[in-house]
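Task card 7
Instruction: Convert sequence to structure tokens.
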Amino acid sequence: MSGDSKEDTSPTTDAVAQEQSNPPDVPESTLADGEPMSKRQRKKLLKVQQWEVKKKEKRLKEKEKNKQRKLEAIKAGLPTRNGPSRKELKRNKIDYTKSDITVVVDLSFDGMMIDKDVAKCVKQLLRIYTMNRRSEKPIPLHFTGIQQGGAVEKHLKRNDGYQHWDVKFSSQPFVDLFDRDKLVYLTSESDNVLDTLEKDHVYVIGGLVDHNQYKGHCHGLASEMGIRHARLPLSEHIVIKTRTILTINQVFEILMKIQLGEKWQETLMEVLPMRKGAKPKELEKSSAQDDSTEKSDTVVTADKKEEEPNDSANSSEDSAS
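Output:
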């Protein structure tokens, strides 16, 4: 071994495991006002610290596993990766001068979400960022209204290097950053249907994970600001028997696919999860007509068999349902 080689100072899984088994002591009084922590607060803080240590251990194990897979692939003469490399993705910078649209995620709802929902919100932001980097035509992304020292910023900081994402972060409201005439706030309560994406317009997604607790809040916000609002054309293209509340990343994925030239119905069917039970609108109409024809045939058959009143009654119930 050459004397010039550098010693590997990265922590091993054993070291991390040792750190996890001996977590740091939680101070008795760490609140901003100097008051001692309650038992519940200490327990919560300790849980967060243990989770951070466990996350490091998990990442190290994943790195070792990926390294072993790569070595096995090289020995077998197989390709060592699928899709673009990290270096290629880093070079996939957004050209803001050629983009058709811009997307903003309004993150000014810190005080309206519990910590668990803020974590879900930030996780969806990560999915948006990853999805956009791998897109053939990345969209300029803006995360606005981030309160300094707030819950959203705290959870963003848990993602190492998030400041280097190809995203523009801002604590300012989005209305102060863009021309109001170009803004369109997406909200399911709007009466305006978004049929097409207008060039050079800015589409705003509300970064509020509230399980429908504040229904209509973003719509009211857009109305108060005096900016345009619109809803995605869900009911115009598909039929859903469950709630049609979409996540932040689902809305972004729909916009991304539409600006790439895909059609609304195909995009909605592809993005919406199967558990929603969505059906194309034309197919739903055809299915309803077939059911109606079958029920009519059943009634005719029942009328012919007058000597079997029980079967006739059952058939009538089926046709009415």
